[in-house]
Please model this.
Amino acid sequence: MGTGGRDAGLCEQAAGAPAPKTRARVFMALAYPNTYHVGMSSLGFQEVFRLANSNEDVACERIFTDRWTDVPRSVESGRPVSDFDILAFSLAFENDYPGLLALLRQGGVPLLSRERDASHPFILAGGVAAFLNPEPLAPFVDAFLLGEAEVLLPGFFSLFETERPREETLRILARELPGCYAPSLYTPEYNTGGTLAGFHPNGGAPGKVTVARLKNLSGQPAASSLLTPDTTFSNTRLIEVGRGCPHGCRFCGAGFVYRPARFREPAALESSLEDSRAFADKAGLVGAAVSDLPCLPALASKAARLGLALSFSSFRVDAVTVPFARMLADLGVKTATLAPEAGSQRMRDIINKGVSEEQIMDAAERLVAAGVPNMKLYFMAGLPGETPEDTAALPRLVKRIKHQFLASSRTRGNMGKISVALSCFAPKAWTPFQWAAMDSLEELRAKLALVKRELAGTANVEVKTDVPRWAVVQALLARGDRRVADILLLVDRFEGNWSRALKESPVNADFFTRRVRGAEEVFPWDFLDQGVTKSYLWEEWQRAIAGKTTPPCRFGGCRACGACGQPAP
Model:
């Protein structure tokens, strides 16, 4: 299964990563429960690797699912999992959870934390998927670090002792490290109907676990520490420009748990650009709201002076002014990525997207006029409140955009391509849609089929759709409680066969995916303190039902949601 051992990292180019150590107080393996290609394309994974090795007491190596042949082994030294004091998992996506169990099993580590002893590695987990809702993995993980690694890792390593008994370590971490969640110190209680009645701490654990945040991003510049030809960004150094997004799209966890949105200072970003020249020909700006970055035009000019190509991910439709479109063209951008998300204005209001069809058309015209020939469009199917007319509006909007593209392209003598990426909506914790029911598998398939049928044969338009059953799995893992761990155990036993696992499990997956929640229901993640209050999210859910929009977050200028202090009375 892959190349295994030392050879896997030989083509990597260091871009600020500390050299791996052979001796340290704590020996840690950082595992990404997916392939090397996916893991090394994750800036968050790279940053945790860099931060761990920056600690003089820690030696950190990496493990990926495709970089060993017999038992899980590290990239740096080829050591097996059993040789490490800590096995830490970086969890960005719910659908990677089965990979965590598979790696434990293949490494000879008991899956359930209660069955492990001092001879086994301490199992640690973090990442955005974990701090939205860690409960489906609670029986397998000794401790979660919930929040941002820059804040959490120094405190964890100062408290962790390899010789201390595991239970004592967990009690100390839970009491003394904000953001540390030790599942074994909490007992869930259920109502007769299956909903959660309460969540009871013991052993001195806090009733609420506060998710850790870094106040000043500029003091901790985050950029790729290793470049490798085996990833999507083989010659691109990724630079994080900020965290969070002010616009409050109601389906997006990052828009709420990272509130208020934070951007790095221009000087820090320019310094990262200058450093990138020694490692790559291109820099990629990463963030949930790159087009909101105030200094973006200045950064583009700086990159041009440095001889660096510059790219960034999708940007908001309403950000595409004439100067912005010209900036993209000057940067050599050939494909602009926009996310209207929904075809009808009614649905865009429900999800609080904050853009109109006129703005979408204007963006298309400006991009082509500036010389950006291709466009990628992101949409979702199965959003809360979606009607057949809303679904039918999606291909109509794409055709309108195509016609606008065609009209603008005639003056340039060529017609570019429009790529439509259509995914299935999966409700997430810590969003206003955490109360919503998900569409059934059959409903999702019918909606995807309608869009594909309506756009079939449309010249210069390509449609790629999600796999609905994986969206249902994602929703199950995103809003499940500890009982969902039993389904994960069956998935592991049946070697990834979700259909069989769901059929044979006594746990009803529809209970977590297909049910509308009530205002008073206790959620599995309610013990977390994310800053944003549950009452604010409920108000946003009610506004969504009414089709009302909410203005963007004012970057700390109010007290409405609780993220910047107590909400207004």
The two ends are 58 Å apart (CA to CA).
